[in-house]
Fold this protein.
Amino acid sequence: MRLAAPLERLIEALRKLPGIGAKSAQRLAFHVLRGSRDDARALATALLEVKDTLRLCTLCFNVTDIDPCLICADANRDRSQVCVVEEPHNLIAIEKSGFRGLYHVLHGSIAPLRGMGPDDLKIAPLLERLRDGSVKEVILATNPNVEGEATAVYLSRLLKPLGVRATRIALGLPVGSELEYADEVTVGKALEGRREI
Amino acid sequence: MVLRSQPLGESDRIVTFLTRSAGKVRAVAKGARRSKRRFGSNLEPLSRVRLHYFEREGSDLARIEAADLLESFYRLQEDPERGAILACMAEVADAFAREQQEDESYFRLLHAVVRAVRDGMDLDLAARYFEIWTLRLHGVLPSLSSCARCGNELGARGGVYDRREGGVLCRRCAPGRPPGGVVLPGQAVEAAGDILRRAPEALIGREVAAHGLAPLADLAEVVFFDLTDRRFKSYEVLRALRGSG
């Protein structure tokens, strides 16, 4: 059955979003249709605002509407620690943990199969940030997969000659899981990163 | 063995496998990115797993029920350069393996070369080994011992790969270098002979001079391009890593 053209267009647009299939897109479109005009306008304005006003912080490359971003501009944060993450949404996860240092977003990882090499990442600006000597520790919080590990190793080799302490976030068993279900690589990593209590 | 693993939607992955009995298989791992308990590191590139999957009618994507880890090469790929070389092999295997067609010898080739890398095989020699044997197993490796035109042994003088002829010509038949061709000196012909005669584990600890291996890399690149009409991304990244390292 053919729907009205504007509704079809909305469904098509929603379908392009990650994790939204045909049925979910249809459900969301009808929800917008049933909702008030104000709600629809607010949604449309928010979508446009994201595109029109957001950019990357020139220091940490996080997504921001002001430059430098709120985190980089916050005088109460520990400026001796920089936590390196792959993507802006990874930063949110670290921030929730209560980390109070600064960040650097690489916008990817070294991923040969996707054609992503070191020159495609925000590595040069990271090294530039470390020049003045105020950063004492760089925490490599790239994802715990093959690409994230290779990126962390690559960065650690670049950081060593600069005299900056490079640390890797601990890898291992997720809280709330059970040991018997963990695979050998995960358990191996957990044993390797064990600490005294 | 896992060739590649790509995100799908919010929590799933599409994983490409090279299997012993069904060639290349592409399958969806539901919840692989959310639930670490279900798949853990099992779906990381080059993991050898016992795969349980079912095919869906009308879809060329199977669905993974379970993937039990038999052998992990995760640690091997933590080194960026080694990881990139192994990614080159995975990308080549992805391009050459045929879906749903038994290809046990290709599976055994990839497994043996990755194991040899783990056991200390020179990285460039391993890459050339995989490339040369990929071409051989798929019936497209030009003769690297005798001239494609006159049939004479190439020997210590080597030869030249001629793209138009699709074969290696001796120096008498091709005194110059044809456009886009690859010069293969005697050392390269000798290295290719070693690669074709020996198992990868027999080449562990063996050092082959760069001037023997580099022309074989050029040959593989040219032949891969002529066959697939594309350049492999991993090779570009490997070059960038070596350039910056």
Notes: Strands of chain B lie at 2-8, 12-18, 24-29, 48-54, 62-71, 159-162, 167-170, 182-184. DSSP finds seven helices and eight strands in chain B. Chain B touches chain A through 34 residues (CB under 8 Å). The longest strand of chain B covers residues 62-71.
